[in-house]
């Protein structure tokens, strides 16, 4: 069942000097329920814009964006979004950060906390429930953000390079954690990253984007079994073969993006 | 729009055992400085300069002691102090509440803020202290005119910081809250107001000082009670020591208020790393 559908979706922003800047053009792809799709592309190509369109934070300039078969107007029901930058509230403790979603949705403080505590435990932050974000490490803050998003039990999970600021070991740990928590929820995931290894390790399908203005260049299936262990799966021949195949496609775009950057700068 | 009108939120400095040792030394040096300063003043006023114009520490001390034991020309010094405090506190509360509410609302309403910007700038450029005279014509010699002066001074100090604080809210936090299901009102109460709190507190430190200035200047311009009246009377009778004594009482009150505000701030902003704040003053 298709949950997310983009058809020729284009987003233009008012650019500097009067000319509109096209972030993404003619995006077309679909995500089914329970499917994990990774979107890769050169840095700064407009991958995040894709998520803004699906989340309803930004309306499409042209084309169609549909969630559950209905065009997106405002934030659709059942959407969770993990941002690249830290978006936890520094003035709230871990438990109250996680309880924010249920509170916004009308639960009493006690009920929201009970529900939040389950997720605080699930992401392994039980002993830190009363801590403030500034007392936590970067990886722990990401766990808070993950619990904050998942406590709403989203059917659509949008993730914008959520682990890019973490060191390699913490990142792999968080990737495993994400897969463990996602498994069995039936949520459709769009995971944006510029790290192809991360994309393959996590996803069922990988969407390769062109350099700016971004559009879909190719879509690849990832023939890897679940459940996966991200540290180990990287060594398998299937992983390496898939990596090689997708990298062939991605390489040109990365090279072109670099040329553009060196021309501008 | 108002870099010079706002005080930035306090910068955090971690405290360790080493800094405690450093602080003891800091305070001893400060103490030595005060002793040298007052001592040289006393000495100079005794031997070289005319204490009639410049007064001297011992005379000021005597005047203070006199006020607190036998009272002033207008009754007990405590009555004067309480009157001034009442005016300042009322002015502070009204001005701060109005400044916070309007600042935050305007900070979130981009279009209205753009419409209002030149008027606010103009209102801020008015030498507001002069309004004290106008308020006495409007409201008479009583409490109201002093409170009004204090409100006007406090309002703008707090307003600009609340406005700036509401504008500087992290977009990510707002988007995140909206995705999590927050309504517009919930975004305002759970994201914008807490974000602006450190900005607002930065201005509140200065604002109580302004409230005192407003009250005292209001009394100075015309009153039948208060510290401003004591100072005005001291000026009228060429009593330099009286002016200094009034200044000292006001300073002590301002420092006490600052200390109370810092306590409140530390309580409300527990979520921040430990901070050492320094109040900024602008008269």
Automatic annotation (TrEMBL), chain A:
| One Pfam family here | ABC_tran
> Mind listing the UniProt keywords for this protein, alphabetically?
ATP-binding, Glycosyltransferase, Nucleotide-binding, Transferase, Transport
Can you give the residue ranges of the ABC transporter domain? 4-236
The record ties this protein, via CDD domains, to: ABC_NrtD_SsuB_transporters
The record's section on Gene3D superfamilies has: P-loop containing nucleotide triphosphate hydrolases
Q: Which molecular function GO terms apply here?
A: ATP binding; ATP hydrolysis activity; glycosyltransferase activity
Q: In terms of domain of life, where is this protein from?
A: Bacteria
Could you tell me what this protein is called?
A: Mannosyltransferase
According to its UniProt entry, this protein's organism is Actinoplanes cyaneus
- Which lineage is the organism of this entry classified under, starting from the top rank? Bacteria, Bacillati, Actinomycetota, Actinomycetes, Micromonosporales
- This protein's encoding gene: ssuB_2
TrEMBL record, chain B:
Look up the record and give one Gene Ontology term from the biological process aspect: transmembrane transport
Name the residues that span the membrane.
Answer: 27-49, 88-107, 187-217, 243-264
Query: Where is the major localization of this protein?
Result: membrane
PROSITE patterns in the record:
ABC_TM1
**Domain ABC transmembrane type-1, chain residue ranges per copy:** 81-265
InterPro entries (alphabetical)? MetI-like, MetI-like_sf
Report keywords, A-Z.
Cell membrane, Membrane, Transmembrane, Transmembrane helix, Transport
What Gene Ontology cellular-component terms does the record carry?
Answer: plasma membrane
Keyword Transport found: yes
What is the protein's membrane topology class? Answer: Multi-pass membrane protein
Q: Which SUPFAM superfamilies match?
A: MetI-like
Coiled-coil regions listed = none
Per UniProt, subcellular location reads as: Cell membrane
Q: Tell me the protein family, please.
A: Belongs to the binding-protein-dependent transport system permease family.
Q: Please give the PANTHER family that the UniProt record associates with this protein.
A: ABC TRANSPORTER PERMEASE PROTEIN HI_0355-RELATED, ALKANE SULFONATE ABC TRANSPORTER-RELATED, MEMBRANE SUBUNIT
Indicate what this protein is called per its UniProt record.
ABC transporter permease
Q: Which gene encodes it?
A: ssuC_2
């Amino acid at each position: 069942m298709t949950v997310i559908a983009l058809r020729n979706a284009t987003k233009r922003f008012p650019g500097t000097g009067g000319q509109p800047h096209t972030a993404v053009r003619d995006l077309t792809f679909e995500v089914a329920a329970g499917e994990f799709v990774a979107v890769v592309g050169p840095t700064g190509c407009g991958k995040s814009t894709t998520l803004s369109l699906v989340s309803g934070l930004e309306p499409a300039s042209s084309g169609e964006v549909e969630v559950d078969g209905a065009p997106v107007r405002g934030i659709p029901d059942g959407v969770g979004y993990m941002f690249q930058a830290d978006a936890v509230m520094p003035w709230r403790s871990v438990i109250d950060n996680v309880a924010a979603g249920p509170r916004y949705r009308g639960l009493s403080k006690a009920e929201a906390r009970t529900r939040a505590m389950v997720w605080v435990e699930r992401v392994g932050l039980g002993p830190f429930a009363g801590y403030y974000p500034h007392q936590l490490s970067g990886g722990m803050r990401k766990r808070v953000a993950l619990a904050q998003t998942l406590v709403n039990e989203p059917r659509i999970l949008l993730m914008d390079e959520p682990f890019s600021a973490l060191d390699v070991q913490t990142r792999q740990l968080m990737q495993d954690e994400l897969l463990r928590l996602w498994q069995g929820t039936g949520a459709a995931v769009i995971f944006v990253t510029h790290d192809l290894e991360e994309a393959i390790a996590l996803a069922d399908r990988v969407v390769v984007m062109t350099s700016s203005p971004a559009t879909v260049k190719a879509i690849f299936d990832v023939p890897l079994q679940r459940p996966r262990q991200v540290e180990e799966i990287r060594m398998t021949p299937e992983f390496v073969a898939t990596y090689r195949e997708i990298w062939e496609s991605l390489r040109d775009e990365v090279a072109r993006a670099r040329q553009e950057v060196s021309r501008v700068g | 729009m108002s870099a010079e009108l706002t005080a930035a939120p306090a910068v955090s400095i971690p405290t360790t055992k080493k800094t405690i040792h450093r602080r003891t030394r800091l305070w001893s040096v400060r103490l030595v400085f005060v002793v040298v300063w007052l001592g040289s003043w006393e000495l100079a006023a005794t031997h070289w300069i005319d204490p009639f114009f410049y007064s001297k520490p011992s005379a000021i001390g005597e005047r203070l002691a006199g006020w607190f034991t036998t009272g002033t020309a207008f009754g007990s010094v405590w009555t004067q102090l309480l009157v001034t405090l009442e005016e300042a506190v009322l002015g502070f509360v009204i001005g701060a509440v109005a400044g916070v509410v309007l600042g935050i609302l305007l900070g979130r309403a981009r279009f209205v803020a753009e419409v209002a910007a030149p008027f606010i700038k103009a209102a801020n450029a008015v030498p507001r202290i002069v309004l004290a005279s106008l308020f006495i014509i409007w409201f008479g010699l009583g409490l109201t005119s002093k409170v009004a002066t204090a409100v006007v001074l406090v309002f703008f100090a707090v307003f600009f910081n609340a406005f700036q604080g509401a504008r500087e809210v992290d977009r990510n936090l707002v988007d995140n809250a909206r995705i999590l299901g927050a309504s517009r009102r919930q975004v305002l109460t759970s994201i914008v107001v807490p974000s602006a709190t450190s900005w607002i507190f930065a201005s509140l430190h200065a604002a109580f000082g302004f409230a005192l200035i407003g009250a005292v200047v209001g009394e100075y311009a015309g009153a039948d009670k208060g510290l401003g009246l004591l100072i005005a009377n001291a000026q009228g009778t060429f009593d330099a020591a009286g002016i200094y004594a009034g200044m000292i009482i006001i300073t002590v009150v301002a420092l006490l208020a600052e200390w109370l505000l810092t306590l409140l701030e530390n309580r409300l902003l527990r979520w921040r790393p430990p901070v050492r704040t320094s109040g900024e003053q602008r008269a």
